[in-house]
Task: structure prediction
Amino acid sequence: MTQDVEMKEQPAPSNSVPSSSPSTLHHLKEIASLIETGAYDREARRILRAIRLTMALRRKLKASVLSSFLSFALTPGSEAFTRLSSYLPKEDENEMEVDTATSTAQPPAKHSLPELEIYCYLLVLIFLIDQKKYDEAKACSSASIARLKNLNRRTLDVLAARLYLYYSLCYELTGTLSEIRSNLLALHRIATLRHDELGQETLLNLLLRNYLHYNLYDQAEKLRSKAPRFEAHSNQQVSHGFLLSLSLNCYPLQFCRYLFYLGKIRTIQLEYTDAKECLLQAARKAPVAALGFRVQCNKWAIIVRLLLGEIPERTVFMQKGMEKALRPYFELTNVSLSLCSRRLTL
Result:
């Protein structure tokens, strides 16, 4: 992945482990600087780049690194610093020596920006989810959402949308997704009043997923029909938030997820023609890397086409990486084909 921010190497101190590349803490400080610049200049694109760079560092995040970064980005003793530090396990002393060795190069921020504070929530939340500490992740995500409700800054929209995703994920992983439905509805209402288009689109998808998770298709359709819809964005005239989410690949599956959920709703409503169009479009527009998502789209599309009396092409089942997952559907298609042949002979 090409980095959007140049990471300049610094000579390693004599008391640290020799390394030819900057430390994870150094990269996080570079990202924090990028967020600060984006906040002061009101450029959401810089914050988008910060998120993309953070995802590249995701596997390198450690408790010791995060503790050092919190001390750098937040005011020590502040409410946010105390709360986030409580979610992190005690760091290893050896790791602290390596990570804090580079922390002396820059002094901690005197006044934390709201964007930096929310970014710290996001970092800790990602770490807790990766460590499978779902109870702590739920508490952290709830605290971050409570903080977001009191902030109304357009430069926070991108960070907020990402937090909404992880907020829902935490509750889904713990089997308590229904608990946040009313809160998601309230957040969607707030995003609409604040003209936060990216937040509206993200929360609409999360609400549809919430309803469909419990097979509440009628309620999902009622919400979808009344909420601002993705179809309102044409290829030539696209909203600013939606353009950012797609052009910079921050949320490449956003529109595809909406089409997938709409396709499932149309299938249950027996509107197979519309369902087929939505599902095939979702599979076609999805990024190549989103293999699992494309597999699900193809599974539903095959079922819908069979219900329409169509026989999917063999190439559908031979797509790279999908052969094993679609094998049962290939056999089902062969059975349907043989039944059709028998009827014709009769």
User: Anything to note?
Assistant: The radius of gyration is 23 Å.
